[in-house]
Write a structure and sequence with these properties.
mainly alpha
Amino acid sequence: VSNQGKKSCTECAFTKEEFDQIIRSIQSGRNLEKWLFLALFKFKFHMISKLENTAHVRKDSLKVCSQFNFALTVKVPRLHNANIYDSENSPPHIILGAMDPLYCVLIALGIYLEEWIFIGVGGNDKFGNYLFTVVGTDQSHLKDTVQQTLKKTMQDNNMTGLLERNNYQDKLGMQSICKFASTFSSNNQCSKEEINHRYGLKARYGDKYDANG
């Protein structure tokens, strides 16, 4: 558990098939908040970022990349002491699209932001300074809502049988996305140093989220 010296209850990564099924399931929903969840889940995979850090990404940190106009940059804040999320000292990271729409974070962010602006949230003070927001609530509530959505998605779509491998069905959650992203990156020629830099880990934590060890 973060900042409590306890081991996380989430131990294993999603497989690609499981993550794909989760994204497709949310995508088939009819509620407007599905665009928020799709954008956040794909952003989390793309950035290999913790949920609490993702929840505190500021809107004004998302910018067009000065070097490549087909890409964006973003600063993902890191939690420091006294519960202060610092984005000023966080390095900007590049955000690229993907040939597979199921994984394309640019498409997901574009639809999410356009939908939010269309329904009037973008100009509403309740939207706040954060990129990902559940209207009228704070970021703590956002984290709870996102975690509940993931759990409900797995339960409602009879995914339990798929996720029961190695009796780990109770050890899957938001951090499983980070571990899947880290493992996926490692399997595609990204070094541990590159993965650590993306995630914001110190080098000595090398393969913490790499299921390949």
